[in-house]
Amino acid sequence: MSANARSSSTRRLLLWGGLAVVLVAAGAWGWTLRRGAAEGPSLPTGKVSRGSLRISVLERGYLKAKNTRSIRSELEGESKILSIIKEGSFVKAGELILELDVSDQLERRVQQKITYEQAEANLVDAREKLAIQQNESESAIRKAQLALELAKVALLRYEEGEWPQQRQTEQSQIMLAEQDVTRAKERRDWSKRLFEKGFLTRMELEQDELAVTKAEIDVKLAKNKLEVIEKYEFPMQMKKLSSDVTEAEKELERVRRQGEAERAQATASLKAREATFGFEKERLAKLDSQIDKAKIIAPTDGTVVFATRGNGRGSEEPLGVGTAVREREELMELPDTSAMIAEVKIHESVMNRVQLGQRAVVTVDSYSEHPFSGKLSYLSVVPDSQTRWMNPDLRVFRAEVTLDGETTSLRPQLSCSVEIVAQDLLDVLNVPVQAVFRRGGKSQCFVVADGAVSPRDVKLGLSNDRFVEIKEGLREGEFVALAMPPGMTSEVEIDMPKSKVGEVVQPGLEPGAAPAPAEGRGPANPEGGARPPGTGRPRNRDGSARPGGGGARGPKPGGATAPEGVRSADGAPGGGGEPQSGDPRAESGTLGPKKE
């Protein structure tokens, strides 16, 4: 036989041998599966049930009073505590609860008192100076007004009295001189006739002629005098007197302006002194107020609760005698426990599922047997800045739930669990989330019936971290595998439909009922809000809660994790907690329904 023939024969033998091995392996797997169905292998199963399903968001938080009187330090700068009441003490309104050291303020008050009194003396002096200046200004104005009036009278007296009288006098003098000329001429003429007749001598005639000349000269002098008075003396005197009036008017205006300037200066000085006095008075009053505020009095009745200092990690010493406190620092609170609220922080992945007005169930850890009903009354629109500062990758939103009913027995800062109820689904088919797998882009369940396991496509509805609603594909009473059958593979993540209004926590609860404690959920956020990435429930890429995630465990082999109360194929608890008695949806350790 040639080498090529031998090689071809060898390849055919290997091919048939491999096919035989595959067929044997497939038969062995089928025999194992059927044998496991008959003998009860380790595959867990769950029952398809019909019942209620609650849509809610469950978070940890703490209580605080709805109405709280905050006590703060109102002293400037830093001050130390001299005395403080014990935390938890019940105080009455008007009772001293804290006293701060004000020795520095007392020393400054002594210095300020001296400055205040000096400012008060300066203010009195400025007021007196202003009054004196006003009197002097008024006196100077009256004097200037009198001088103006006298100048006007002098002008009027000269113009209407002295000048007409003087002109009339001079005119009279001219008339008399002219009459003297006439008489002198008559006498001279008479003397000429007598001289011609020889009764008078020439000397006597010359004397009469000289008298005429003298009388004519007197007339000229009188006329010249009147002309000088009218042409020079009268205008000059009028101008002088008019100038006196003008100067008196200007003097009056100058005195008025000077008085106004001096009064304005005195007024400005007074205002400056008043401002200085007011400032010093305010400083003194502020120091008095600071000294009074050193003793903090309880504004209302209440229980004293010390405020959390610093960043909550013990970076600052607690309140006590000798502790330094800053201005406006919150020291303590007096809560009114007649109205309480629960504060929680909700992760951003479920923010679109909560809204104001939704009812809630609040279970206080120390009063777990008496859950409280409430309503979501506040929801922040921006992430919590403190949490974001501590963990930049974490986005949580602060929310408040107002508790209903009597709450006086509660105390602030008590830890609690808050379930914000978004929706209660009634009479719906549901299976454990571990029973749903993702294969070939479809959601499937492995139905266990008559010892056989068969995949079945299903249409999912809303889900929580334990159960998922089945809309199509399964019937009530059927059993489904809670783990991937051996040899099967599934996609890593199960694409569960997400609730648009909330996250299901536990099914089968009546409205207002307290949720059962969910073990194995992973550590709670120390801030009382949503868990940071990597802790608590596993989440899908979009941030939604991954079904079947109890605690921080990843998916079990086979593509699913066992639910709370159900053990996986290897016997490890899936999600924590023991199965509840009478729960038909979790039959651990059986492949199919139990045979009678």
Description:
- It is built from four helices and 23 strands.
- With about 600 residues, the chain is an alpha+beta fold.
- The strands form five sheets. Strands 2-10-13-12-11-14 form a six-stranded antiparallel β-barrel.
- The protein is rod-shaped and about 205 Å long.
- The N terminus and C terminus are likely disordered.
Record the strand order, biggest sheet.
2-10-13-12-11-14
Radius of gyration: 60 Å
> Which spans have pLDDT < 50 for at least 5 consecutive residues?
1-11, 20-41, 492-596
Report the mean per-residue pLDDT as an integer. 77
Q: How many strands, what sense, and barrel or not for the largest sheet? A: 6 strands, antiparallel, barrel
Q: What string, H for helix and E for strand, traces the elements in order?
A: HEEEEEHHEEEEEEEHEEEEEEEEEEE
Q: Note the overall shape.
A: rod-shaped
Strand content: 15-25%
Q: Which structural class do the helices and strands define?
A: alpha+beta
Number of helices: 4
Q: Percent helix among the residues? A: 25-40%
What oligomeric state best describes the polypeptide chains here? single chain
What is the terminal-to-terminal distance? Answer: 66 Å
Q: Based on DSSP secondary structure assignment, what is the total number of beta strands?
A: 23
Keywords, separated by commas or semicolons:
596 residues, alpha+beta, 5-stranded antiparallel beta sheet, rod-shaped, disordered N terminus, disordered C terminus
